[in-house]
Amino acid sequence: MSNPLFLRTWPALAAAAVLAGCSLIPTYERPAAPVAKQWSDAKTAGAAASLAADLDWQDFIGDTNLRSVIRLALDNNRDLRVAVLNIEQARAQYQIRRADQLPTISAGVTGSRQSTSELTKSITSSYSAGLNIPASAAWELDFFGRLGSLKEAALAQYLATEEARKAAQISLIASVASTWLSLQANTELLDLAQRTLATREDSLRLTRLRFDNGATSALDLRQAESLTAAARATAAQQQRLRAQDINALTLLVGQTVPDPLLRATEATPFASMFKDLPVGLPSEVLTRRPDIRQAEQQLIAANASIGAARAAFFPRISLTAFAGSASSDLDNLFKSGTWGWTLAPSALVPIFDGGRNRANLESSKAGREIAVAQYEKAIQTAFREVADTLAGRATLGEQLQAQQAQASAEAERAQLAELRYRNGVASSLDLLDAQRSLFAVQQLVAQTRLAQQQNQVSLYKALGGGWTPPVQKMEEKQAGL
Questions:
Q1: Residue 179 to residue 474: CA distance in whole angstroms
Q2: In angstroms, rounded to a whole number, what is the distance separating the alpha carbons of residues 436 and 230?
């Protein structure tokens, strides 16, 4: 049998639920980027048909062994695994906040027996079974958007965590590539040091033989001994640096790297190690970096928290309810005529809280200002990283060419000095000086080549490369978490 009061009450509650959700979140406006509108290097700053952020890392890296090492790192790196799990945790927190806007309905059976008189020893019984919204989980009608603000803040934090995972992947790819390149350079320097050591040991034997026969002075002998010891020390140093590179690469990859992958592919020329990167305008590049998008999502979350803090000044309306069967006799609990319902709305109006709500609002506003400063700092840091790597790209190539030309000249000088020394025309000091200069220049060539390659990797990272996001609209993210 229908109850008129019940039929009049539920539409009112439904209307209240529809009206609920008035948001007190301040209107969000993206802060202006505190950087120049274009890069200082006009040659590389022109608009390009595509951006580096659209270039997948498999296409950017030309060496097949390095690509294999990066794949291993993406599968096994523990920091990246933690970043993925952080996304799962943030998604769960968002789902909790979203569930707070809906009533918690439970099904249960309760019973109680109570003595009502000490004289008569009478006992009353009460039994009920049905659906209820318990007082411990009262449904809050979100008239002033407190729960909605918390949900928006949780959503922004979830999206920020997603961006953090993308930034972690980009950083991992760049770190693996830079460490692997350092390993190649230190391997080359180790080979150079060992060849130089062998050459200087031959020169030392020849100088000692000449000294024993009175053809050279003790000064020449001591100079040869000194250079040989220096080459031996350099070889030991390079062996240590190479071992440290392997240890660092093992940590990044998360497992032992197979030996064949520790060296560059022989078929990969130096010019094809990495693909040339197009560079667009700062306004295009900086908005593609995940760390900047992460900072903006954190700013959005801080902005939404202000709405929740504002809503705390208004009444909090909650509802508990029960619909089911009730009887004083357990046998008659489910018989006709025992059905009933109760509604128990309540409103709590803040009157005095010692300034807690005001302090919470001020804290939320200060948190937003902090997030604005962090967002602007992220943009400025990104701008500098890109500008620095562009400056490196413009000069390291010329530096490497000049040093390679110097190395060629020093190599010819060393050959001529050795020929003149063997023919007795030049002293051993001339030969040792030429060998020392050649070794130093060859080391500089390897180090500059490493700096140029690592600069290419840093530019790719600075431009937001290393992550290819799926084609997905924001509305789809919000609905399909």
A1: 36
A2: 10
**Domains, the chain, ranges and CATH?**
22-101+142-314+359-479 (1.20.1600.10), 106-138+315-349 (2.20.200.10)
Q: Cα separation of 195 and 205, whole Å?
A: 16
Q: Which of 247, 256, 282, 277 is nearest to 465 (CA)?
A: 277
Tokens read off for 17: 């639920």
Measured between alpha carbons, how far is 308 from 148 in angstroms, rounded to an integer?
A: 8
Q: How far apart are CA 402 and CA 448, in angstroms?
A: 11
Question: Tokens standing for 36?
Answer: 């120049």
Amino acid 198: pLDDT: 92
For 115, the 3-state DSSP assignment is strand
Q: What is the largest CA-CA distance in the chain?
A: 134
Residue 227 in contact with residue 436, Cβ under 8 Å? yes
| Burial grade of 144 (CB within 10 A; 0-12, 13-18, 19 or more) | buried
User: What tokens were used for 115?
Assistant: 């003595």
- Cα 418 to Cα 433: distance, rounded to the nearest angstrom: 11
Q: For residue 200, which amino acid is it?
A: R
130 near 425, Cβ under 8 Å?
no
pLDDT of residue 457: 93
Residue 477 makes CB contacts below 8 A (sequence gap 6+) with 159
What is residue 101's DSSP assignment?
T
What is the rounded distance in angstroms from the CA atom of residue 292 to the CA atom of residue 376? Answer: 9
pLDDT value of residue 465: 82
Chain centroid to CA 202: how far? 52
Token output for 339 = 């059905």
Distance CA 53, CA 33 (A): 19
Q: What pLDDT, on a 0 to 100 scale, did the predictor assign at position 336?
A: 67
Give CA–CA dist 458/332, Å, rounded: 78
- Residue 405: what pLDDT? 96
Angle at 96 between CA 93 and CA 102, to 5 degrees: 160
CA distance 2 to 7: 8
Q: What SS3 class is residue 144?
A: coil
Sign of the CA dihedral with 159 first, then 161, 163, and 166 last:
negative
Nearest C-alpha neighbor of 166 from the set 60, 289, 35:
289
Structure tokens at 143: 């008239």
- Report the run of H or E that residue 124 belongs to, with start and end: strand 123-133
Question: Amino acid identity, residue 15?
Answer: A
Partners of residue 187 on adjacent β-strands: none
Which parts of the chain have pLDDT scores under 50? 1-10, 12-20, 42-49, 469-480
